[in-house]
């Protein structure tokens, strides 16, 4: 049995018309969806005119305001030393030195003072008796003068004995080496059983609470840096505003650098020896347009910001960044002072999309 399949011819012009109609319908639907994008919830801030300068970053190190090698003030054998890592308050004992000699000296001086006090009482009584005899001309005046002189000299000896007692107390107290400020013991420089003499270093004590950053700056920056000037510190990607506590305007003859002491932001947690970078102006500040750091959107194709236009829709602008502080960054690329820029919610924002402020203010509708 033989079957015959009939061939049907479809006109080419009709096919093209159908395809174009479907494409037009899809495009119209996409455009309608674009026009119907819901408002994006964002936070905005204004670009501002700032006096800023290009920054250069200097290597810095976290140091303590109090880092001392504590020495003994008296000679003797070391009988106890606090271990490394011990946290001490001001006045706490760091080490103890054998105090037997000082204890004996104090007892001897107290005994001497007591003996002189007893002798003075006797001499005062004897002087009173002699004064009665002299009043009746029963003794020569020289005898009375001698008694008065002996009493006066003994009183001076008592004063010296009391000074010796106080000195012995000080020496006894010095057998206990105490912390001059709160901190931690980071190194023992003497060991139990060793003989210590005045000036012998016992421990290294470091104040781990009061810290700052030490950095070396080229002497050529002395004309643009000063005490109290705002700078930034950077650790990895974290940047924070701070200030120069002190500029030491004395350069090193070999390195041609000078020291900066920079305060750490309140509440920051660092350890002595941590490496930071200090951002300082590299030139005289100039007026620029700056935006908050949070306004920058970083992508592989570049850096851009979203500006809220007059019709209250988002406009994406490619920008070039310049000088920066911990709070704002100078930008160029169409941004002007007073422009509203998105600082929250810009990650998924699209070109031309209406925006709504957090808190219910709808910028797209002006409400």
TrEMBL record:
Keywords: Coiled coil, Signal. Residues 106-178 form a coiled coil. Residues 288-356 form the YknX-like C-terminal permuted SH3-like domain. One of its GO terms (molecular function) is efflux transmembrane transporter activity. GO terms for cellular component: efflux pump complex. Residues 1-32 form the signal peptide. Belongs to the membrane fusion protein (MFP) (TC 8.A.1) family. This is RND family efflux transporter, MFP subunit. It comes from Kordiimonas lacus.
């Amino acid at each position: 049995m033989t079957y015959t399949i009939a061939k049907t011819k479809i006109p080419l012009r009709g096919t093209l018309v159908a395809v174009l109609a479907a494409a037009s319908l899809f495009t119209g639907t996409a455009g309608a969806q674009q026009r119907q994008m819901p408002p994006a919830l964002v936070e905005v801030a204004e670009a501002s005119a700032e006096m800023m300068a290009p920054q250069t970053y200097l290597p810095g190190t976290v140091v303590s305001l109090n880092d001392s090698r504590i020495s003994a003030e008296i000679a003797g054998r070391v009988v106890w030393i606090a271990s490394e890592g011990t946290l001490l308050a001001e006045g706490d004992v760091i080490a103890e030195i054998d105090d037997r000699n000082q204890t004996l000296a104090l007892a001897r001086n107290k005994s001497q003072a007591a003996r002189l006090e007893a002798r003075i009482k006797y001499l005062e009584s004897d002087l009173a008796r002699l004064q009665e005899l002299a009043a009746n001309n029963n003794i020569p005046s020289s005898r009375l003068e001698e008694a008065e002189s002996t009493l006066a000299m003994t009183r001076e000896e008592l004063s010296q004995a009391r000074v010796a007692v106080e000195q012995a107390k000080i020496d006894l107290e010095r057998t206990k080496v105490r912390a001059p400020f709160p901190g931690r013991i980071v190194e023992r420089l003497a060991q139990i059983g060793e003989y210590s003499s005045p000036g012998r270093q016992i421990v290294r004590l470091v104040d781990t609470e009061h810290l700052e950053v030490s950095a070396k700056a080229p002497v050529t920056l002395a004309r643009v840096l000063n005490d109290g000037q705002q700078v930034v510190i950077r650790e990895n990607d974290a940047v924070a505003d701070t200030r120069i506590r002190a500029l030491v305007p004395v350069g090193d003859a070999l390195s041609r650098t000078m020291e900066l002491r920079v305060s750490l932001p309140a509440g920051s947690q660092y350890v002595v020896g941590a490496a930071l970078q200090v951002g300082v102006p590299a030139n005289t500040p100039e007026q620029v347009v700056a935006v908050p750091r949070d306004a920058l959107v970083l992508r592989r194709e570049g850096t851009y910001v979203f500006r809220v236009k007059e019709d209250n829709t988002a406009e994406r602008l490619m920008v070039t960044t310049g000088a920066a502080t911990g709070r704002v960054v100078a930008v160029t690329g169409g941004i002007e002072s007073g422009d509203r820029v998105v600082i929250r919610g810009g990650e998924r924002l699209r070109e031309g999309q209406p925006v709504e402020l957090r808190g219910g203010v709808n910028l797209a509708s002006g409400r």
